[in-house]
Amino acid sequence: MTPCDTAFTCDFTWNGKRYTAQTGDTLALALWRNGIMALAATRKRHLPLGLSGSHVAGILVRVDGHPNVRADRVLVHSGLVAEAQNTWPSPRFDVLRLARAIPAATVYGGFEHSGLVKSGSPLFQPWERTLAFLAGVAEAPDASPARPDPPAETLEADVLVVGGGPAGVEAALDAAREGQSVVLITRGTAPAPGQFEGLAAPVTIRGGHEVFGFYRGGTLALAAPDDPRRPAILTRQNRVVLATGSSSIPPLVPGNHLPGVINARTALHLAEAGAIDDVAVVVGTGLEDKLARMLDSFGIRVAAVRPVASLSRIEGQDRVEAALFGRDRISCGLVIHAGPWIADDTLWYQLVADGELQLACHDEQAAAVPVQRVGNAALPAEPVHVPPGRIDSAHACPCMDVTVGEIRHALGEGHSDPEVIKRLTGCGMGPCQGFPCWHQMAAVIAHDTGTVVATRPSRRAPGRRITVAQAAGLLGLVKPL
Amino acid sequence: MAHTAPQRPLPRSASVIIVGGGIQGLAAAYNLAAEHRFGDVLVLDAGYWQGGASGRNGSLIRGAFGTPEWTGLFRYSAEQWRGLSKRIGHNVMFSQRGYTMVAEKASTAHTLREARKVHAELGIHSELLSHDDIARLLPAIDRGQVSGALHLPDSGIAPHHAAMKGLLAAAREQGVDIRYRTRVTAFERRDNRIAGVWVGDHLVRASTVLVAAGGHNPMMADLAGVTLPGHGTRLEIMALEPLRPVIRPGLAIIDSLCYLHQTPRGEIVGAAEAPESPHFTLRTDIPVMATTASVYLRLFPQLADVRILRHWAGLIHATPDYAPLLGEHPACPGLWFSAGWSYGFAGGPGAGRLMAGAIATGTIDPVMRPFAIDRFDRGMPLTDPTLVL
Question: Start and end of every FAD dependent oxidoreductase domain (chain B) (predicted)?
Fold first, then answer.
């Protein structure tokens, strides 16, 4: 991409209108600066979604003819053309918004589980075509890319560190000081290379890459899903350090999908960029006071700081307008959450088990390489609070538009197995493949049935972390067993 | 399981016990209860609902193959699919959007023309597609890669979660007792006949047991003390992130051993097989993902930068000819199998009805007969040139 062409700003287009971005802005940040928070819509009822730091569906947009581009990863360049997906006939005149009038309970399980039009009836084929159009959300890419597809590469090191935060950097430094070569993978910007100079062994850094799978022989596979020109990579190492951190999970209250509900990390990022001028309410599980002080230092007005368990509802039409704590209604434009903190254990889970059946035929591959979790990734998950009262409209999985009410409907029909509820509702089958929504689902099941939910559905790689062309590039590196 | 609702105690006896609550087991159970008025049908499954191949397959429903035997069974089953929602009173979402077999090599295009002749003799509706037909039906395919295509307009797809939900509800409404997370640990035999099954230390008596345990069938046969041809192995498949429709029919790209379709959720689901030796695991591996991606890249270059959403494995029981094993085991009266499936989702509603009829009446339908368990001993395998798995 060519960066902004003047020193400070450049123009881009969103939904057919021109806006100005600052140099170095991601698309999500540039839109936020321009007061545009609703970037996407849920797939069943077309509710507004935006940048949250928690779920991917809210930031998937069409950029320069490419569907499903993460607005928080793509940098604005001069003349960039972006638009919202899941609209018809156009983002400016979107008839699909009428779906908001559909009562939620009529689309539990998705339209495809409804008896509305049965297969075999004359209307079924056109009905199914309509469903597929709606569920597809994004038009296919305009054309095939005119570029060679990159063959995959290999990387070898004594130690492979996943995560470029403080814990990952520390683990990389420790290993390199001991004379062990290190590869450090981070999905964000790479840490400054200066701090890794003069060590006993080299540290190789790969930024903008996401590790998507643990395969046989302890091979880790990674790719850069937001930059299709870069090849996939397979790694070989003697030891793996997972420093993948933890995330704050959205509160399980009605309105939690609304644009303006953001996690602590996203809030600090926006604050640092000077993009916040709304009043904020901060909730959390202990770190909320500290976060509020940090936000205050950026000049952000914080109207209330409360434990997340006291939050009962978030109100708003197209974005956050108020936070409710019982009868206490506080007007605000943002609800910022700092907890409950949960580590995304997808990689760990894939290593030790992939569903209960997998445990039964668990083979020697898993133990091929020692794996260690460090930093926040090693901390136990904090419990997700399930508030009393009517929270049926709270989203457990905004990407697949699955609400607490939908999970309760499945529980009411006698299903309490997480694997079964996943299949009945689609919860966790969207772009993030189960994190954090299965924690929310498990919390509702545990709360309502009074039991401990010991399992979550099996984790399925690669969770949109690799493109078709990148995966094809792996062909020369792997031999079938 | 701690989170599973407490279940009623198991019964002491059943008219028929079905081991396996996948599509074969549920379809047979539904038909035993609904069509043949069997009471006390009991279905036992060690895993969770849709945990086996019935919830992990490619959802394709193909009503014709290259040989009369395969075509006979799968045409019958496709007929069942077309009327299934109406018959069982639940929406199985069968979409009659057609199924296209695509040849890349000229020799395979010839095979498709031969298959068309077989279909004509059997009165099956199938069409060899012209270049223009392909452009209309499959606008996304690179037509330079295609040397021929045979289209089955009566075939299609059904989302497995919808089909399985419908069958589960319909079977329960007919009074079938269905228990998941309930593992059969031993078979009870008396005077060589089957006499029931054990679940831990609990015996359920039955004079008829149907084993329909998917990839676990060879293990179940061992447990029952009989042998079955074939072995359990994994197949892998993957889904791309959702897109609005670009591929309408179900597809088999025969020369690349690739099958795919676009689901009503917009995901493109399919796989191309990598030549690997059998592995009995639900782990996925890189070769199938890479092979599938390279076939997509060649045939659907527009998909190059679309991301892969998820990749999973399922277990099948592969027989020497990849054809199912249907019927009573010759070495153990009363012990029936619906095993050896590799197109089991497509074949489920048909085979379930035929199996129920065979158990209830003792007469094997001519469509089912060629798939007898002892066909290899009799030197009559059912090899078909149009298989893709």
Answer: 16-356
